[in-house]
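The aim of this short unit is practical: by the end, you should be able to scan a pair of folded records and say something sensible about each. We start with the first protein, listed as its amino acid sequence and then its C-alpha cells.
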Amino acid sequence: MTKKAKIVLLAGSLLLGGAALQPHAPAQARTVHLTAYNTSTVVSGTVEGAEIMPFHLALREGQRLDVLCHSRKKGVFFVVKDPSGTVIYKSAESPQPDRWTGQAAFPGKYTLAVYQQHPATRKGQPAFFRLHLTVAEASDTGLTP
C-alpha cells in the first residue's frame, strides 16, 4: 500500500470516528393525552447515551400526578418541570428514584424528561424505560387546590 493510500485511509477513519462521537440530536417531545374517562397511561421509549426523552402532559390546577418509572438498567431517572420550566422534582436526588407524586400548583403543560446518569451514558448505550402516569382530580384525592 502506498504512503498516499495510507494517509487517505487514516484521514477517512478519523472523520468517521469523529462523527460517531457526536452527541445525539435531542429527542422530539411527545405529548401525552388523557381524558376524563382515561386517567392513566403507560408511555415507553429508549434513551441512548446522554439523550433526554421529554414528554408533555397538560394538567389543571390541583390535579395530582403519579409517576412510576421502570427500567431494567440502573441509572435511568426522570425530572418533572412545571409550565414555567422550573424543575420541581429530580428522581436522581430522591431516596425512591423510580416514583413521584405531586400536585399541580397551576395549570399548564408539565414536562417529564427521562435520561440516563450512569457509566453506560458515556458509552452511548441504550436503556429502555416505561413510565406509568396517573392523573387524579383534587376531589378524588381529598386535596383542595
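Turning to the second protein, read its sequence before its C-alpha cells, just as you did above.
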Amino acid sequence: MKFTKTVSFLAVALGVALVATEAQPAQAKTTSHAVPKTIQGTWYGKYHDDLFGNVPVKYRLTKYSFRQGSSKKSEQKEARTYYVNVKKYNSTKSRSFLFNVANKANKHGYWKLTLLSENQPVYLKHVKHNGKTALKMYYKSADTNKVQTSYFYHK
C-alpha cells in the first residue's frame, strides 16, 4: 500500500512538472521586450501618405514607449503614444495603445514592432543614409499592399 502511494505521488509530481515546463515556453513567446537602444531617440522625417502626400513627422522611441506625431509645433497636441506590452502598461492602458517588440532583430537587422490592435508590423533599423545616421522604417501598406520605406534623422 505504501509503495503504491509513493508511486502515485511520484507520477502526479512528474505530471505537474511536465505541465509546468510545457506552459513556460508558451508564456515566454507572448512576452514583449524593451525597445532596443540602437533605435531609441527622437527621429524626424517625412511619412508618405497617398491621401496627404509627404507629411512631416516626429518619432520618439524610449525604452518602453513609441510616440508618433507631427513635427509641426501647431499639430504636436495630436501626437499618440504607444506603450510596450509589459506588465507595467498592459493592466493600465487600452489594447489599442500597446505594442510588442521582437526579442531579437531579424536576419536583415530590422526590429519588428507590432501594434496589438492592428497586428500590422513595422520594421525599424539603425542605418547610415546619405552620410547621416538614420532610422529606416518599412512596412506593408494595408491600402495598397505595397512596401513603404521611409528614413528618419536626428536634428
